[in-house]
Amino acid sequence: MFSKLAALTAVFAVLPMFALAQSGTGDATFFSPGLGACGVTNSNSDPIVAISSQIFNNGLCGRQMNVNFQGRSVTVTVVDSCPGCGSGDIDLSPSAFSQLADPSVGRIQGVQWNIV
Q1: Where is the signal peptide (predicted)?
Q2: Is residue 17 assigned to a domain?
Q3: For 60-102, what is each residue's pLDDT tens digit?
Q4: Letter string b/e over residues 30-57, b meaning 16 or more CB atoms within 10 A of that residue's CB
Q5: Which among 16, 30, 57, 77 counts the fewest CB atoms within 10 Å?
Q6: Does residue 16 register a pLDDT over 50?
Q7: The model's pTM
């Protein structure tokens, strides 16, 4: 009985780590950051991301995300939610977006990302 309880406790202790392991593919846009949902104020030059409110939770605040698009990549920090984003879409700071594409395009499709 004790070993079953210990095993279940171990499984439930590890589950939150898997729940936070997120990845996706979607569109990327950029925004002018300020005070985000994580309680941190950021600027246009900070490498940050707002993620869809469908997957955002406070456990993701401060987590790093690798973002890839057509052979370019950038690492950003989750600081905000994006209520207007679809489930795989992300909203980057202008400096992070410019590492993936020219900001004049406004939106890029097929961006792959994963939270590390």
Answers
A1: 1-21
A2: no
A3: 999 999 999 999 999 999 999 999 999 999 999 999 999 999 9
A4: bbebeebbbebebebebbbbbbbeeebe
A5: 16
A6: no
A7: 0.81
Joined together, the tokens standing for residue 42 give 């950021």
Q: Tell me which residue of 74, 52, 100, 46 sits closest to 108, measured CA to CA.
A: 100
User: Three-state SS for 10?
Assistant: helix
The domain that holds 53 is classified in CATH as 2.40.40.10
What does the pLDDT read at residue 79? 98
> CA 89 to CA 109: how far, in whole Å?
9
d(CA 59, CA 41): 18
86: domain range? 23-115
